[in-house]
Automatic annotation (TrEMBL):
Gene: NAALADL1
Source organism superkingdom: Eukaryota
PA domain boundaries: 170-256
Domain Peptidase M28: 322-533
Cofactors named for this entry: Zn(2+)
UniProt GO MF annotations: aminopeptidase activity; carboxypeptidase activity; metal ion binding; metallopeptidase activity
Principal subcellular localisation of the protein: membrane
UniProt topology in membrane: Single-pass type II membrane protein
A Gene Ontology BP annotation from the UniProt entry: proteolysis
SUPFAM superfamilies attached to this UniProt entry: PA domain (SSF52025), Transferrin receptor-like dimerisation domain (SSF47672), Zn-dependent exopeptidases (SSF53187)
Subunit structure: Homodimer.
UniProt-annotated location(s): Apical cell membrane
Protein name as it appears in the record: Aminopeptidase NAALADL1
Length: 716
């Protein structure tokens, strides 16, 4: 009977299995979109909601931005001062608001190495009698008050941050812009520069370089002034300047950080925390080795003969904060779109940087409201950063990239920077001109053939243009360029150190209609709300246009199923950089030094990159046409786009330049329009005969381009 029991058990088991299969077949809904499927199945393939994007732009208010700026610029807020600390609290309140706030916030503190003037012993430049101690003239301690909102007890006296203390005295010599070539020319003329005081004008080279170069030729001290020809279209009288126009008054003095590098100077490559190893102050490079002081052009024209520079700056470590705001992504929370601007200023800082912070606060207000109302959550996480101590050398943003180096490199899609959001007053602004550099341009802003062009109407503005135009409904058409951002704002460590695709957005003036190298009140005590409200953007419609455009880019990066970054334009840029080295004197010199073969592998690498990029774009096009594209395939191509910028990094390429590792976008001192390392090596070889470095940098470029091409290839 035992075999009957076994047979019965087998039959019962078979029946139960059959019933289970039938129940599974008929009772469970079929297809990934059934009501019984996990919720992520229904949302993982969602794309950008254009109507939601339009709703965002409709809600951006110029008056709100104006109110933000008035609050932000109500008092001076130099890094680590009381005014700066109050803005930290303001940002935290806004981003923690239950109706319009973000998901979460944090305050990240770093011990930054900073430089301040001694409030008890003001810096000055004095004219004395040769050989005697009698002073017949001393420069102003601060600018002349011309408006009520300019006056404040916390206005810092003009000074050159990081310049060492000292009281050198000597014969005054004019050294143009303080470039090395300027001092060399004086030396070649037979002028003895030892022990002299050099007066230089802003521009031409970095602030610190004016002193570093002078010290090399024996100069004892440096005075820097702003020339009316460089900033004011030669307007120099009080009647022609602020408050009667946007031009800088005669007493205006441009403050600034005299620092050739970025990040905390004592902790390169490490976040400036209490536990961090700090180098000796004597080991710092790129700061003035001799006393240096900025003055106004009113005082500059008075300086004659024997001059004494009196500098009493103090270098200290003080706590500086980054304020961070977070919106968690729904489908890809481990992919970050970053948006930032610095918070600190030299004085009131209405334009630099508060115009950018005012825009950021309006963007976060609208997005926060949509978030709290349950109308929207981004596909990818969004991180907002209000960076501290930028004016001293991009310290807050650089320390952030150092502290979160690995996470940011692995997960960051792009960084959007909006610092000075509006540079110029309307009469000088081309209708709807936008200044923006993007290391990989948003494909929504490119034509079908991949060439850079104006964005379509719905990208930047859906309303009538705020500026005069040929038509009442002229849309904004900002030109975008694929090019080097340099290191002038907080994008520097993101692109040069981490290789994160970066963009800088601003409304600027037509440089064909003014010779001003920047807006005239830059870094002076005249950069106030009144100045911005009357002369930079009355009505704040240009600020509104920047907020709409920057928010538009942010939402496209955060919500698009496939990242809207166009890789093909890199091929055109590579061609451009190659062409500069493959013709004329440059090519002749390569041939003369047996380096002609070096350009052939480079051309082959660029051609391969362009071919691979074209194939990659075809794969994306095919993927977008699929009714239900594979989430894994979408993730794969997005990672390839995200990592393309990283492929151009080579930490060994520029050993003498902190943080610079991007082979395409690194800084260069040469005027050759080719790859930066190759350009500098070539210019140096002309002087020294060392062509091995040229050969080395040809190798570096070829390897980087080949690496980038491999990044875009289809995964085997």
């Amino acid at each position: 009977m035992s075999w009957l029991k076994i047979l019965g058990a087998v039959i019962v088991g078979a029946l139960l299995l059959t019933v289970g299969i039938l129940l599974g077949h008929f009772a469970i809904p079929k297809g990934g979109n059934g009501s019984g499927a996990p919720s992520w199945v229904q949302t993982v393939g969602r794309d950008l909601n254009e109507s939601l994007l339009q709703s965002f732009m409709d809600q951006v208010e110029s008056e709100k931005i104006r109110e933000n700026l008035k609050a932000l610029a109500s008092q001076p807020h130099m890094a680590t001062t009381k005014g700066d600390e109050e803005l930290v609290k303001l940002l935290l309140r806004r981003w923690q608001d239950p109706q319009i706030g973000l998901d979460s916030t944090s305050e990240d503190v770093y011990g930054a190495f900073l430089s301040f003037p001694d409030p008890q012993r003001p810096n000055s430049v004095a004219v004395g009698v040769p050989g005697g101690g009698i002073k017949i003239f001393t420069t102003r301690r601060s600018e002349k008050n011309v408006t009520a909102d300019q006056a404040h007890a916390d206005v810092v006296q003009p000074y050159a941050a990081y310049a060492p203390p000292g009281n050198p005295r000597g014969r005054l010599i004019y050294a143009n812009q303080g470039k090395r070539s300027d001092y060399q020319e004086l030396f070649n003329m037979g002028i003895n520069l030892n022990g002299t005081i050099a007066i230089t004008r802003y521009g031409g080279t970095g602030r610190a370089d004016k002193a570093v170069n002078g010290a090399e030729f024996g100069v004892a001290g440096v005075v820097v002034y702003t020339d009316p020809a460089d900033i004011n279209d030669r307007r120099a009288s009080e009647e022609e300047t602020y408050p009667n126009s946007w031009y800088m008054p005669p007493s205006g003095v441009e403050r600034g950080s005299y620092n050739g590098y970025f990040g905390d100077l004592l902790t390169p490559y490490y976040p400036a925390k209490e536990f961090t190893y700090r180098i000796k102050e004597s080991e710092i490079q790129g700061i003035p080795p001799i006393p240096t002081q900025p003055i106004g052009f009113e005082d500059a024209q008075t300086l004659i003969c024997d001059v004494q520079v009196n500098v009493h700056n103090q270098r200290v470590i003080k706590n500086s904060s980054n304020v961070m705001g977070f919106i968690r992504g729904s489908e890809e929370p481990d992919r970050y779109v970053l948006y930032g601007n610095h918070r600190d200023s030299w004085v009131h800082g209405a334009i630099d940087p508060s115009s950018g912070t005012a825009v950021m606060l309006e963007i976060t207000r609208v997005l926060g409201k949509m978030l709290k109302e349950g109308k929207w959550r981004p596909r990818r996480s969004i991180i907002f950063g209000s960076w501290g101590a930028e004016e001293f050398g991009l310290i807050g943003s650089t320390e952030y990239t150092e502290e979160f180096y690995s996470k940011l490199r692995e997960r960051s899609v792009a960084y959007i920077n909006v610092d000075i959001s509006v540079f110029g007053e309307r009469p000088f602004v081309l209708p709807a001109l936008l200044r923006s550099c993007c290391t990989i341009p948003i494909s929504a802003f490119t034509a079908g053939d991949g060439k850079l062009c104006s964005p379509p109407r719905d990208v930047s503005h859906s309303r009538p243009s705020p500026l005069p135009g040929p038509e009442s409904l002229t849309p904004l058409h900002p030109p975008y360029s694929l090019g080097s951002l340099g290191a002038g704002s907080d994008y520097a460590s993101f692109i040069h150190y981490l290789g994160i695709t970066s963009m800088d957005i601003a409304y600027t003036y037509d440089r064909n209609k003014t010779s001003a190298r920047i807006y005239p009140a830059y870094h002076t005590a005249f950069d106030t709300f009144d100045y911005a409200d009357r002369f930079i953007d009355p009505g704040f419609t240009s600020h509104q246009a920047v907020a709409r455009t920057a928010g538009n880019v942010l939402l496209r990066l955060a919500d698009s199923l496939v990242l809207p970054l166009n890789v093909s334009d890199y091929g055109e840029k590579l061609d451009e950089l190659y062409s500069a080295a493959a013709q004329g004197d440059f090519l002749d010199k390569l041939n003369a030094n047996n380096l002609s073969l070096g350009t052939d592998p480079l051309k082959a690498a660029i051609d391969r990159f362009k071919s691979v990029a074209a194939d990659f774009n075809q794969r994306i096009t095919k993927l977008k046409k699929e009714e239900s594209p594979s989430p894994l395939q979408i993730r794969m191509v997005n990672d390839q786009i995200m990592l393309l910028e990283r492929a151009f990094l080579n930490p060994q390429a520029f050993p003498n330049k902190y943080y610079y590792s991007h082979v395409i976008w690194a800084s260069k001192s040469s005027d050759q329009a080719t790859f930066p390392g190759l350009a500098d090596a070539y210019t140096n070889a002309l002087e020294t005969g060392d062509w091995d470095q040229v050969r080395k940098h040809l190798t570096i470029v070829v390897q980087a381009v080949e690496s980038a091409a491999s990044t875009l290839e289809a995964v085997a």
